[in-house]
Structure formats: C-alpha cells, structure tokens
Amino acid sequence: MSTDTTIAFLGCGSMNEAILGGLLAGGLPPSNVTVTVRRPERAKELADRHGVTALSNNENPQANSQAAAGAEIVIMGVKPVGIQDLAAGIAPALKPETVVISVAAAVSISMMEAELPEGQPVIRSMPNTPSKVGRGVVALAAGTHASEDTMARAKDIFSASGTVVVVPEEQIDAVSAVSGSGPAYAFYLAESMAAAGEKLGLDPETARILARDTVAGAGALLSEPDADAEALRIAVTSPNGTTAAALETFTAMGLPDVIEAGARAAAARAAEITAGLQK
Questions:
Q1: What distance in Å separates the CA atoms of residue 29 and residue 23, rounded to the nearest whole number?
Q2: For the segment 9-22, what is each residue's pLDDT rounded down to a tens digit?
Q3: Could you point out which of 10, 59, 136, 174 has its C-alpha 20 to 30 Å from the C-alpha of 225?
Q4: Torsional sign, CA 37, 41, 42, 46
Q5: What SS3 class is residue 36?
C-alpha cells in the first residue's frame, strides 16, 4: 500500500485497532491516520499508543465527518446497528473516489449504498479476531461501484492483518460461519480438551496448558505454505493407534455433522440479523 494513503477509522474497537496496528507496522505513517471514537479517554489512549490523530465524538459531534472528509479510505468499525446511520452521517463529507469499507457483520452492501452518494465505492469485509496478531482471515465483497483497482487497494490494506480472500456478497454469511465465528470453535475445542484432561486425572492448570498449546501448535502447522488439514491429520494418525481410536469415536458420535449444523446455525443467524437491520 502507498504510504501516502490517508485512512479514517470510524470507530476503533479491537478489530479496527488490529487493522490499524498492522498498517502502521507495515509502514503507513501515523500522520496519515485519523481515528474517531466516542470517549475522549479512548481517543487519548489511541493517540498515545499509535501516534495517530484521534477524535472524540462526545467532544466533537462532527468528528466522523471531519475524519471522512480528509480520507481516501474510510473504514467503518462501529456496531452493525450503527453502520447505516454512520454512513448517512458522513455521506455529505465524502469525496466521490473515497472507498468506504465496513467491518461490521450483517450489514449488506445495498444497505450501505442506500445511505451513501450514488456511485460511492463500497466494500463489505468480514475479518476475524486473529487479525489482532496478524494471523487473521479477512473476506472482502465488492460493492456495485468497487473496481478491480479498488479491491486491490483493499486487499493490500487487510493483508497486514492476515490472509485475504475475495468472495461474492452472497457468500459472506457462509464466510462468517466458518472463519468469522471459527476462532470461537477452536477456543471451544481447547476448553473441551482441557475438561477431558481433568476428567482423566490431570490437574486443571496442566490440562489447560496442554490443550491451549496443542491447539495453538496445530494452528501453526496449518499456517505453513501448502499445509492441508486432511494430510496433517493422516500423518499423525497411526493405524489402530490412540489417535485413531479418538477420531473413530468422534466420527461415530457425529462430530462432523455437529460442526456442519453449528455453521448452518451461524449463517442463518447472520441472515436474521441482516433482515432485522433493514430500514
């Protein structure tokens, strides 16, 4: 990404701050970034930590519009229920070429475009929490007026947070069910492994460390170039061995079906939230 790019982060919770941190680590000058948050204490915290310009909406009701007016890229990171109002609020301040990106779940491209000037480039993104450590997965969906060049710029921005994929918007709910919610599935697995270890006689702290670091280590193996989950599983599963006994039990008890059902429930809930946000 060009170090001349100016970016406004409207809302800076954990996800937007993770993206911000990745960009700054990649060479974007802090002077090119403006952040808006509600509380002045949070604004000072971000300014002190990152060296960026940070504005408080509580102190300056025009903070979002001011930040958007000076930016080539605007990243909206407020809660889903606030995205449409935020888009409408900054619309008069945007330059026609400014790219507006949402990191909020459930808010469709059409819902954002309806609040923004005709022809405004819009991108919908779905990041996940490992973006905080540069190991996230971010899916991008192009709006009606987002060109290939616009998408390339967005990919460049989010690549600082991890892997970036481009999907049609109709697949975003499926993305949310796999990678958006996926870290919680891995954490749940680690919790369950630790609980099983305790029941097998391990003390709670030892069980927690074993489960946590095993899941983290397996993830590191999966992050290697050309890594394949099935191949890694097969490599560690000796015929008639202990791992095989466990995996055969998982399959017999329907674990793959349970995971699929959970993902379908997550995708369905995302669609319900979107419907509930329609004006």
A1: 9
A2: 999 998 899 899 98
A3: 174
A4: positive
A5: strand
What is the token pair recorded at 135?
């190991």
The CATH code of the domain at 182-270 is: 1.10.3730.10
Phi-psi region of 248 (alpha: psi -120 to 50; beta: other; left: phi over 0): alpha
Residue type, 139: A
pLDDT in tens, 43-102: 999 999 999 999 999 999 999 999 999 999 999 999 999 999 999 999 999 999 999 999
pTM above 0.90, yes or no: yes
Crossing angle for the helix pair 204-222 and 229-236, to the nearest 10 degrees: 130
Looking at domain 7-171, its CATH superfamily turns out to be NAD(P)-binding Rossmann-like Domain (3.40.50.720)
User: Taking the domains of the chain in order of start, what are their residue ranges?
Assistant: 7-171, 182-270
Burial category of 160 from C-beta neighbours within 10 Å (exposed 0-12, middle 13-18, buried 19 and up): buried
